[in-house]
């Protein structure tokens, strides 16, 4: 190969790309978002239809499910990749996420793992409850209608508490409401098309204890949107994108009963907030995670801020471990999840939900730049250095390929390091 062929061109983010004439990658997508198309085109890839021969498919979750269905009979070859795991919903459906985390905790308990340690804690309302010490990162949650009686039992322990109802299969704040009285839930059940009867109800809901003591900035509630890239579930290989952001409510936080139905106070979803009169289209009600960290270091101190961010990473890793055994670990797949996390005023992070198709729509200029980088970095991590999909690759990107991603966990790497340390200890002992 001539020197020109070997030469790599760095793009404006310092990334190194394979020259287009060597790539010959054909891509397919049913989501023609500009941040996707510009990344594919910059790599010299060419677009084909779903019935043509493709190497890389960026698909919606529904398209992916259809492709992997038994009826389709489609089998991918070694040079094809797709952006979802077949049963991604084990993590992204609200009821299945809760079920899997509960099962994971029970399994660790049965094994006698120190991770499953429990202790009594006093809630900010004064109620004493038993909680997992290390795995208490989802609010108390029940699936309705199946867990209705268990929910009522829990509700009666603290009748003044507020709970949040969410339909399991919907997103972007659709169908969410808050309740603080059992009568309100019963009234909703009577008025709903499908009442709470396990045999009749078509749509399930999750009902979670509402985090009513959120950390506020400028008197407003916010949550974190973090991007987590998974390239394998067994062994687990996951990366955290450094450029996440906070999403703010447009109206100051208020716990009064009169504001219980005001979603501009309680829901941080941009799809909800952008319809509010106080929505700012310049910054989009968003703040970078880096600025959040600086704010917390300045107001709460560096050590507690570092502890918070370590807890967030711990939460993400164990939510992934909770589903790793049930995920269909197809080597053709990778997935970028949108993690939604709320921080309470004690700087404790809570996992709210996980999205399998985080929005790639840009609401601001900064949003577009960040999402362009996200896609660029994803492609560099999931593809071998040659830039062509190959399932025989060991999925270990070089450090330059990570871009703005940090390695969260690589179980294969951990296993190799443990084996090397074990061998080293054995060698030293033998020498003695």
Automatic annotation (TrEMBL):
Key words of the record: ATP-binding, Cell projection, Cilium, Cytoplasm, Cytoskeleton, Ligase, Microtubule, Nucleotide-binding
Looking at the keywords, is ATP-binding present?
Answer: yes
An example of a Gene Ontology cellular component annotation for this protein is:
ciliary basal body
What's the main place this protein lives? cytoplasm
GO MF term list = ATP binding; tubulin binding; tubulin-glutamic acid ligase activity
Q: How does it assemble?
A: Part of the neuronal tubulin polyglutamylase complex which contains TPGS1, TPGS2, TTLL1, LRRC49 and NICN1. Interacts with PCM1, CSTPP1 and LRRC49.
The similarity annotation says: Belongs to the tubulin polyglutamylase family.
What is the designated name of this protein? Polyglutamylase complex subunit TTLL1
